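Researcher: Before we compare anything, I want clean individual predictions. No alignment, no superposition, just each chain on its own. First chain goes here; please echo the sequence and then give the structure tokens.
Model: Echoing the first chain and its structure:
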Amino acid sequence: MSAHRLPRSGWIALLSLTLLAGGCATTGDEGPKTAEGETIGSLPADQNPYARSPYPLPPPAEAPKPAPIPMREDAPIEYVVQKGDTLWDIAARYLRDPWFWPEIWIQNQQIRDPHRIYPGDVLMLHYVDGKPQVVVEGGPRVDGRAELPTLKLGPGIRATPVEQEPVMIPVQAIRPFLIRPRIITWRMTHESPYIVAGDKSRLVFGNDDRVYVRGLPEKPPQRYSVLRPGKRLKDPDTGDWLGYEAIPVGDAILIREGDPATFDLTRIEREAVPGDRLYPYDDEDDDRAFFPRPPPGDPQGTVMSLVDALSSVGQHQVAVINLGTDHGMEKGHVLSVHQPGRIVYDKFVPGGEAGVQLPEEHVGLVMVFRTFDRVSYALVMESYRPLREGFKLRKP
């Protein structure tokens, strides 16, 4: 057999190797390259950084560990919810940062309304795989765990009624903002029905007073909110005009249609005057269950107005912020408030004074309870010093 002659099986094997090598060459996957475009794999060993390194490839990055839940050292193992408790108060008994409450609150499937907490509920703290959990394990609402207290009177049984008011954020501070529109446009301030006069020769009107209204539409609703256009809101960060703040006055009930129409005033919070505007009563946001939690992402905002305050607000007062649904805000989102650092002059710098920007200081927490497109209303939950317009908002 000639030295250049191969058997048939040898030619097939050689052809297969050739095709395999050609296929690898045409894939375009030549491995990593240097800055000059040379394939690292083709470099001599003394010039190949992968050959010189004892670790040809870097180790895979470890997955980030979740942040620990900031539990209080004195968190109670068992707590019976009392009348007058708020959700924020209960969360603060267990957590150093109350807005982490959803992380430990376990919704019990055996009770009718697992999203809310009621007086009489017995809360128990457990640790599952090292993670804290708070569950309802007793109280009148838990079937088979606790019974309603009873009093036997002859052949019958009289059940003592269970307190049914849920535990939540102090709603009395924000009720007027839940059921009335608070941001109104220029068109709304000029085209809405308005009070023209009362049935008595007065300049101001109060509860149960009868007033006359012009500009009522056809087929008007029965119930209206009475609002007074307030100051114009300007976004301090973008300079955009966002609308007008509406000052709540009270409610009005339609008695008789016409021009002018007849209304009776109810639930007056401040004296009504001619020129106050009427807006259809809005009860779509009359949901009083708020579960405080941090917002997603990294929101950056500013306090742009204070409600019923001249220069500052404190705990359980209301502020207007320039973050809304367009920024991902929802009811219950908690934001940290920071006082901007002022500029001081360093007299010890050689060659003259120089301006120094002091750092921000954390001064409180606010919770969003009503949202609009680019504006929200927030309740001050904690304040370590007075909160003012221009203070910055961050994720807690």
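Researcher: Okay. Second chain, same rules.
Model: Second chain and its structure:
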Amino acid sequence: MQVAIPHQLGREEVRRRLASSTHQIADAIPGGMADVETEWVGEDSLSLAITAMGQVMQGRIDIRDTEVLFDIDLPPALGFIKPIVEGTIRQAGQKLLAPPSA
């Protein structure tokens, strides 16, 4: 499952925002019962290992010039929550990448 969130921040600002909020990723997962491990695997890529509902999901966040691409591998057993996960990623991503207030 891929969710692209557009931005106009520049890669450096997106990296800064992601780095300061990785501890909040688990809070954004529906049900509040997830364990999330993150690791930067390059300047513009963050690897995710998410354990929820007895399932392990692998994911990646890639920072691009005009968008951030969230790519999560949902196991078939969790396919029914895809719309919820997509919506949550979109909402949290847009909040994270919102332009600074003037």
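Researcher: What stands out in the second chain?
Model: The chain has one domain: 2-96. Additionally, The longest helix spans residues 82-96.
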